[in-house]
Amino acid sequence: MLPGRGRNGQAVRAARLLGTRTAWTPVGDGEFFCPGCGGDRNYQRLTGRRRFTLLGMPVLPRGETGPVVECAACKRHFGTDVLDHPTTTRFSAMLRDAVHTVALAVLAAGGTCSRTALEAAACTVRAAGFDDCTEDQLGALVEALAADTGRVFGEPCGAGLAIELHEALDPLAPHLAPAGRESILLQGARIALVDGPYTPAERDALATVGAALTICADDVTRLLAAARTPS
User: Fold this and answer.
1) Inter-residue contact 171 to 216 (CB < 8 Å)
2) What b-and-e string marks burial along 5-23, b requiring 16 or more CB atoms within 10 Å of the CB?
3) Are the C-beta atoms of 172 and 95 separated by less than 8 Å?
4) Closest Cα partner for 209 from 231, 229, 182, 190?
5) Are 111 and 154 in contact (CB under 8 A)?
6) CA–CA dist 145, 77 (Å, integer)
7) Which residues pair with 79 in a beta bridge?
8) CA 223 – CA 119 distance, rounded (Å)
9) DSSP line for the chain
């Protein structure tokens, strides 16, 4: 049988004659974390219209497709849910703010009278990215927080502080591995322990941190106990 004859040959010829083509239209742009490149890249958000083609020429509409996200670097297309993942820059800022908020919550629970607690908290916050954070700055922030909410130092975590913790931690938790979520809780626990055993208010604040990080109550208890054991 000669090449191109028979059913396979007919299918090849049909594929050459008929096909589909998508015309993409940009509807937005920005920066995102590209799963293909593995880093922050620019993107275009595209919507498309598909058409049947005859000899490479569009002839009949076939409907709409998309929207999709196209990476400006690798040109790959992704579903729009990829935009839910924070960029590396945004993720670093979220993590830094989370550690700062947890440190303030623990200090507010234990009071600012302990210089050692302030020093430990400032060291933790600087390591998270606030390079110029000082003990005095943290002390002033805790006092301002108490004055703003009418909260008394050493009392259980109030609604206002709980809301702040959830606002800082809820968006971050889905993007952290379990070890990362546990690390944030342990940092807060070590600040609380630097000047003595946990107070009831500190335990309450740390339990709120654990809940916001989607760590179950049993694991919170285990981690708070582990933080008391010298490494």
Assistant:
1) no
2) eeeeeeeeeeeeeeeeebe
3) yes
4) 182
5) yes
6) 46
7) none
8) 22
9) --TT-HHHHHHHHHHHHEEEEEEEEEEEEEEEEETTTTEEEEEEEEEEEEEEEETTEEEEEEEEEEEEEEETTT--EE-GGGGGSPPHHHHHHHHHHHHHHHHHHHHHHH-S--HHHHHHHHHHHHHHT-TT--HHHHHHHHHHHHHHHTPPTTS---HHHHHHHHHHHTTTGGGS-HHHHHHHHHHHHHHHHTTSSPPHHHHHHHHHHHHHTT--HHHHHHHHHHHTS--
Amino acid residing at 131: D
Instruction: Give residue-wise pLDDT tens across range 62-72.
Output: 666 779 999 99
Kindly tell me the burial class for residue 61, based on how many C-beta atoms sit within 10 Å of its own C-beta (0-12, 13-18, 19 or more): exposed
Average of pLDDT values for 12-27?
A: 66
Bridge-based pairing of strands 57-71 and 18-34 is: unpaired
Percent of the chain with pLDDT over 90: 62
